[in-house]
Amino acid sequence: MECAGKGSGTRCLGPARKRCGRCGAVSYCSASHQISHWKVHREECERLEQQMKNLDLLNDFPFTFSQESTVQISEKQESRCSFLRKRGIHQVGLWVCECRCGASVTSFGNSRLESDTWNLSNILCPCRGITFASGLPAFCWKDYYEWRRIPLQSPVSLLLHWPLTVYHAIQLAGLGSLTSEISKLRIHYLGPEKELLQLAVFGELHALFPGVFVQIELIGPAVPHHRFVLPLVSAEIVLLVSLYCCYVKYPFINRLFLLLLQTVKSFPLGLIFAFVRDGDKIDLHSYAHCIEQDCDCRYKNENTSCSIGHASSAVTLQLHRGYYHDRFLDISKDSLPHLVIAPNAGVAAYASWLPTIELIKEINVPAVFSDYCEEACNLAACCINAVTNQPPRLPIQLNPFRQPMVVEDSPLHLPCYSNCFLFAM
Question: Tens digits of per-residue pLDDT, 337-354?
Answer without folding.
Answer: 999 999 999 999 999 999
